[in-house]
Specification:
Layout (H helix, E strand, L loop, with lengths): L9 H17 L3 H21 L19 E2 L4 E4 L1 H13 L3 E5 L1 H22 L6 H11 L7 H8 L4 H18 L1 E2 L2 H10 L6 E5 L5 E5 L4 E2 H9 L9 H11 L4 E3 L1 H14 L4 E4 L4 E3 L7 H18 L1 H25 L1 H7 L1 H25 L12 H11 L2 H18 L4 H18 L8 H12 L1 H10 L3 H32 L5 H7 L5 H9 L1 H21 L3 H10 L27 H21 L4 H9 L7 H13 L20 H16 L7 H18 L10 H18 L13
Parallel strand pairs: 3-5, 4-7
Antiparallel strand pairs: 1-10, 2-9, 3-8, 5-6
Helix pairs in contact: 2-13, 2-15, 4-7, 13-17, 15-16, 16-17, 16-18, 16-21, 17-18, 18-19, 19-21, 20-21, 23-24, 24-25, 24-29, 24-31, 25-27, 25-29, 26-27, 26-28, 27-29, 29-30, 30-31
Length: about 750
């Protein structure tokens, strides 16, 4: 289902555009995305570590004067980016721009003509109106008509208005099919502004056919109107009416397609071989007295990389195998134990950015520790706690432990196979897991990181005592530990909004804040639809308990349940839980209209979720909590009307919700809890057997009859536990003394 765009705040639109940009840039097919993340991260790690093996020949900065001639020791060639870029620009500027013929323009035009002519026919047939009354009536809706009394009389004298509609659309259709452009001068100016061929364009028709046309063949809107105005096939009495219709509704439908044009330019650019500068052995590569340029740097870097690869091939091969082995181990763990969790919570995206942040920290610490002997920065300053808590907050605790071990090994390898760093990294991560595994408030983060730093100081102290370090080294390492953990806190506070807003991945902090009772959507629900609010509370309690039972995220389930029906704020009286009198608005509505009102709350709720910038899992739950389920009550009501002859036909699909089926466990739990909670309110008694029968029938209906859980990775065993949890919660909610059946007594 397409996401509904919100226009409430400029800030929201900016954030949503950033979210879409990131998703379009980084997201994709699940398997392809996994491979992409693994390859990119492994490649970055490879180049990070292989930097130690590089073979250096010259050392100049851009703009330096070259002191000595440098002779190439081998034959080789290198790409010349400047020459390549000039060639690409020249070739691309000759490409014709791509335009599409938008079929919707013709559809809109035809619909507008039909509506206007239908209105005209309706006004003509209205009894008891004078000619002036009819004129005033139609000009209220269409003030652009300027006709004489004689022309109006001729217009109202027409017997068959369908012929007028068909004639107009028939005359316009050929122009629409070939494409109507802006004025030719403006059209050519735009081509020049886009740096495209001004003589020809490529036109893509709705059927997919592509035609290359000369610009002189493109018909502008003014010429189309002129040709139609001079068409003598229109009845003489209504020519002025037709002219004004065309002047108002006829528009261009030839639209510049930036994406296709850019794609063709990209394909062309990729097909062009790069311009290369070739050097032979003994040729001067750098000449004394000249300025060292970017191209000179590329020439030397290419030579360095070639020589470095030749000299250190064995060491680099071993390095690549080691890094690849670690990442294969990580991917195997995810596929074996965390596949569904990663798919639901976008764990690959989190891991990618998390690793990039940690690698940047490694580079920064390594750089500053090498340029200054006085700094106390070392491997103990690395933000292991930051890496771990990001995994805890955005993925889960178990994976935090495993991934922290992998990262500790990689870091130790980078710092010269330093086992001290390996030990510190893993112990620090374990402390972080223990201290923050159940953290629910942002306000406690600083104290948690402070505690992690204090406890983690024991590692360098114990290592220093075992190795006999002096007090100065031990104190320096302790300071490095505290700096690293406090820096982790600062980084976490800084990047958490990026994960929450731009990547649209919520933390438990964000979710818990939503159900604090202060959210305006819930306040409005309490005031406008109190029955729905009480229903949501019941669904939230049931969902939270069920999520705990099957190891799903209880906070996501609870928040999603609290917000799943916020769309009912729009028309609260059409939902039974908000009807506190005997008057039911559905009694005066047709079944189809009732269905539209009921079904609309899903779309309205999703719109509100965008306006309030609710997290993605909550938005998905709102869209998925009814799935494509069937509204039997109104369908049966319509069947009675069909039997009585009040309606002529009945389409079952019109009585179904148009949402998405649940795609993750928490969404499925909310869907089932929503149904069970509603049915529990109409039970005649609350015996265990009665509750169990209702719950099992409800789950069976959703699972088997309607196949609502076909897209959700939830097992039958988990559904059984969900059912048991629902039964317990209903017994608690209606806490009367339960009368157990004889066969259920122990």
């Amino acid at each position: 289902m397409m996401e509904i765009q919100s226009n409430k705040f400029d800030l929201e639109r900016i954030i949503r555009k950033l979210q879409n940009f990131v998703k379009e840039s980084l997201a994709g097919k699940n398997s392809a995305f996994k491979v992409m993340i693994m390859l990119v991260t492994v490649t970055l790690l490879f180049f990070l570590f292989s930097a130690h093996f590089k073979f250096h020949t010259v050392n100049y900065e851009i703009g330096d004067i070259i002191h000595l001639d440098y002779i190439s020791p081998i034959d080789y060639s290198v790409d010349n980016d400047e020459k390549t870029e000039r060639k690409i620009k020249e070739k691309v500027s000759r490409l014709p721009a791509v335009f599409i013929v938008n079929p919707k323009t013709e559809e809109i035009f035809n619909e507008n003509i039909r509506v206007v002519v239908s209105s005209l026919e309706k006004i003509k047939n209205a009894p008891g109106l004078s000619i002036y009354g009819r004129i005033n009536w139609i000009r209220e809706d269409y003030p652009f008509f300027r006709l004489s009394l004689q022309q109006w009389e001729a217009l109202f004298a027409i017997i068959n208005y369908d012929e007028i509609t068909n004639l107009i659309t028939l005359k316009v259709s050929p122009y629409m099919k070939t494409g109507i452009s802006r004025e030719r001068a403006e059209f050519i100016d735009n081509l020049e502004r886009w740096n495209k061929n001004r003589n020809s364009i490529v036109v893509i028709h709705p059927n997919g056919k592509e035609i290359t046309k000369n610009v002189s063949e493109i018909v502008p809107l003014s010429e189309v109107k002129e040709a139609l105005f001079e068409d003598h096939n229109f009845p003489p009495g209504i020519i002025r009416f037709v002219i004004q219709l065309l002047s108002h509704y006829l528009s261009t439908n030839l639209e510049f397609n930036m994406q296709q044009t850019a794609k063709r330019a990209e394909v062309l650019a990729q097909s062009l071989p790069p311009e290369r500068d070739s050097f032979i052995k003994g040729q001067i590569v750098l000449r004394r007295g000249e300025i060292y340029t970017n191209q000179d740097k590329k020439v030397i870097d290419t030579l360095n990389n070639y020589l470095s690869t030749r000299v250190t091939i064995k060491r680099v091969t071993g390095l690549a195998m080691f890094i690849l082995l670690l990442f294969l181990l990580l991917i195997f763990y995810v596929r074996r134990f965390k596949r569904a969790h990663f798919r639901a919570n976008e764990g690959y995206l989190v891991m990618f950015f998390n690793l990039m942040i940690f690698l940047a920290a490694i580079l920064a610490v390594k750089y500053f520790s090498e340029i200054s002997e006085d700094t106390f920065l070392s491997g103990f300053s690395l933000p292991f706690s930051l890496f771990t808590i990001i995994v805890i907050l955005f993925i889960d605790v178990e994976f935090a432990i495993f991934s922290s071990l992998i990262v500790s090994i990689i870091t130790a390898f980078f710092f010269g196979y330093n086992l001290d760093i390996l030990l510190y990294g893993f112990v620090n991560s374990l402390f972080t897991v223990y201290i923050t595994r159940n953290i629910n408030k942002r306000s406690t983060l600083f104290y948690d990181f402070l505690l992690i730093g204090i406890v983690s100081m024991l590692v360098p102290v114990s290592i220093g005592l075992l190795k006999g370090f002096n007090a100065g080294i031990i104190m320096s390492n302790m300071a490095a530990v505290m700096v690293g953990n406090l820096f982790s806190y600062i980084l976490l506070i800084s990047i958490m909004p990026f994960f929450e807003s731009i990547l649209d991945i919520p933390t438990r902090f964000q979710l818990i804040e939503l159900i604090s009772g202060e959210h305006p959507a819930l306040k409005n629900l309490t005031l406008i639809a109190p029955g729905t609010y009480q229903h949501s509370l019941g669904v939230a309690n049931m969902s939270e308990a069920a999520a705990v039972e099957i190891g799903a995220d209880p906070i996501t389930a609870k928040v999603g349940a609290m917000f799943h029906d916020i769309g009912k704020i729009k028309n609260p009286g059409y939902f039974i839980e908000n009807q506190f009198t005997k008057k039911n608005p559905h009694d005066k509505l047709s079944p189809l209209m009732s269905v539209k009102y009921i079904r609309q709350h899903v779309i309205s709720g999703y719109q509100l979720s965008l306006d309030y910038m609710l997290p993605k899992p909550v938005r998905k739950i709102i869209l998925e909590h009814h799935g494509t389920s069937f509204m039997k009550y109104f369908y049966n009501k319509a069947k009675l009307q069909l039997k009585k002859g009040e309606i002529k036909e009945l389409d079952e699909s019109e009585f179904m919700y148009h949402g998405n089926k649940p795609t993750f466990k928490e969404s499925a739990i909310v869907m089932l809890a929503d149904r069970v909670e509603a049915k529990s309110r109409v039970l005649t008694n609350y015996k265990y057997s009665t509750i169990k029968k209702m719950v099992m029938e409800t789950l069976y209906e959703a699972l088997i009859d309607e196949e609502q859980l076909a897209d959700c990775p939830i097992s039958l065993q988990e559904l059984n536990r969900v059912a048991s949890s629902f039964i317990k919660t209903i017994q608690t909610m209606y806490h009367k003394r339960i009368e157990y059946d004889e066969d259920n007594k122990n």
